[in-house]
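Q: I'm writing a short explainer about Sigma-70 family RNA polymerase sigma factor for a general audience and would like to include a description of its predicted shape. Could you first generate the structure from this sequence?
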Amino acid sequence: MPDEPEDRSLTRLYQRHRHELLAFLTRRVRCRETASDLLQDAFIRLMHSERSEVGNLRAFLYRIANNLSIDHARRNQVRGVNDAQALEELVTETTPERSAVASNTLAHLERLIDGLPSPTREVFLLARVEQMSYKDIAARLGLEPRAVERHLNKALSHCAAAALQARHQTEPS
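A: Of course. Here's the predicted structure. Afterward I'll give you a sentence or two in plain language.
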């Protein structure tokens, strides 16, 4: 049964479906703050779409939300693979030259980590050394899980960039 004309207003759609869509997205991305951001993006996309051509706006909203959650997962997977891959490549090289470079790089990374702002450094150490979950780190540091994710991504990006820079400096031209 198609939505009635008065149900096509964005305000009414938002009020009617936001809670269920937020719950759906939270289950998909496992972070309420990220889900909230994706929910806003879903309604922005709906706002810019041709709603008059859509038969079932609720189903269309779910499709948009699902696609946004898939895009989010892909971005995080690619970002994590690139950062982890750069660090893994540095660690797996075993030649004497690479061992010396790795020692120097490790010292450089320690200085880099020590130079990170306090919340970012603490999040990085708790996640990578203590292997704590985002939720546990958030509780310990009084942060939102989304903030933990941002701090960890920032730290990993800085470490990966430093590792790549060190690798490029040691490779023959």
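A: For your explainer, you could say: Residues 5-72 form one domain.
Q: Perfect, that's easy to follow.
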